[in-house]
Amino acid sequence: MATPERGMGGQMHTTTGGKTPRLISPEQAAALVRPGHWLDYTTGFNQPDVFDRALAARVGELHDVNIRNCLSMRPRAVIEADPDSSIFRVFNWHFSGYDRKQHDAGRVSYIPCNLGEIPDYYRRFIDRVDIAVMKAAPMDADGYFNLGPICIWHPAVIERATVLVLEIAPQMPPVVGPQVRVHRSHVDYLIEGEDAPMPELPNTEASDVDRAVARLIANEVEDGACLQVGIGGMPNAVTTLLLHSGVKDLGIHTEMLNDGLVELYRAGRVSGARKATDRGLVTYSFSLGCRATYDTLRDNDDFMCRPVEDTNLPDIIARNDRVVAINNTTQVDLQGQAASESDGHRHISGTGGQLQFVRGAYASRGGKSFICLASTYERRGVRKSRIMPALTPGNIVTTPRSDMMYVVTEYGIVNLKGKSVPERAKALIGLAHPDFRDELEREARERGIIPRSLF
Length: 455
What we know:
With about 450 residues, the chain is an alpha/beta fold. It has 2 domains: about 5-190, Glutaconate Coenzyme A-transferase, CATH 3.40.1080.10; about 210-445, Acetyl-CoA hydrolase/transferase C-terminal domain (Glutaconate Coenzyme A-transferase, 3-Layer(aba) Sandwich). It is built from 15 helices and 29 strands. An 8-stranded parallel β-sheet has the order 3-12-10-8-4-5-6-7. Strands 18-16-14-13-19-24-28-29 form an 8-stranded mixed β-sheet. A hairpin with a 2-residue loop joins strand 22 (about 340-345) and strand 23. The termini are far apart.
C-alpha cells in the first residue's frame, strides 16, 4: 500500500506510483522556453547554472522572455549574453552585489516587497510561472529531491509553475524542513547539473566601529532571547561577542541563517528551550555562509528550514518571547526613518525582512528591535554623516519612524518609542559623530524639527 506523505503546498499524495520526471539535456530544457514566457529562477544558490547557459545560447532565437530571480551568487548567463536586455528581462526580489551592478546598468528591475509576503504574491497576484527551474540535491530512496538550506518561497513557485525543471546539484546539502523536499511526482524534467561546490558568502572583518556597536547591542541580550540577525559586519560582530558572554539558552528564529548564528549553535549557546515556535530547534528560511555552515545543516534535526511566511510574518515572530532583531541601515533622519535599501534613486539591496522583524520583535513580549549603523561613511575622500536632518532625495524608507525602536551607532543607543519629534532629534544627534552634531542641531532648528523654544 502506498504511504501518504505531505508534499509541497501541503497537498496529500502518495510516494509510490505517479509520474516519473524525464531526464533531458540542458539544451532540451532550454528549448521548452517560448517568447512571452515567464520563468522563475528562484533564489541564491538554487538558481540554475547549466540551464541558464543553455538558455543564454538561444539569445538569437527568442524575444520577450521574463525571468524572476533573487540574490544571485554567480553571474547570470542570460544577462551576460543580452547586455541590452532586448531578449531577457530580469525582475529581482532582493539584490546581491552582482544584481546591484546589473541594475545600475539597466539590465535588472527590482520588485518592491516584504520578503515574508512573497509566497502570498505568487498565490494571489502573480498570474504566470510558465517554467520554474531550480537546483536540488539528488533524489533520495523515498523519491524526494531536497532543495537544500533555502526554502524561502520555493513551495509557492512550485505550486504556481506549469512546468517544473530541477537541475541536480550533487553537492547540495539535504536539510530538514516540512517543505524543503519535492516528490518526483511533482517534477516534469530533470537535468544534470555541475558537481561544483556551493557558493559561499565571505564574511567581512569586523571594524572597530562594528565592535563598538556590537558591544552596546550584546549588553541588551538576555538569557532565553530569540535572535534574528541580518547580513553584515555589525550583526555578525554581535554574535561573536555573544560567543564570549555568559548568555545562555538562546533561541534562533530568523530569515537568514549566517555563520555567526551557526557558530553560536556549535558553541552550545543555543538551546531553543524557551521558544514557543519550533521549541528546541533553530528556525530559518535560507542560509548563506561558508562551507562549515552548510556541513552543519546537512540532515541536522536541530535545524528547521521553513518558507518565509513561517519565519517573517510579524504575528508568527511575536509568538516567541524576548525576540531580539538586529538589522543594518545606511541612513537615518532626525525623525527616525531608516533608509536601508537605496542610495538616493540608486537601488542597492531590498526591503527584505527588516520591517517585518522590526514589527515582530516589538510585538514580542520583552522583545527588542535594533537598527544599527556607523555614524559616518566616506565618499570620494570626504567623510559624511549617516544621521541626517532629512533623508537623501530619492531614498526609500525601509523602516518608518513609527516603527523604529532602538537605534545604535558607535556613540550610543537610544529607544525612540514614546519620544516626540524634538526628543527624537536630540537623541539621534547624540548618536552622530561629534564633528556633525552642531550642524545637525542648527539644521534641525532651522527646519522646525526642534522648536527654538525647546532644549
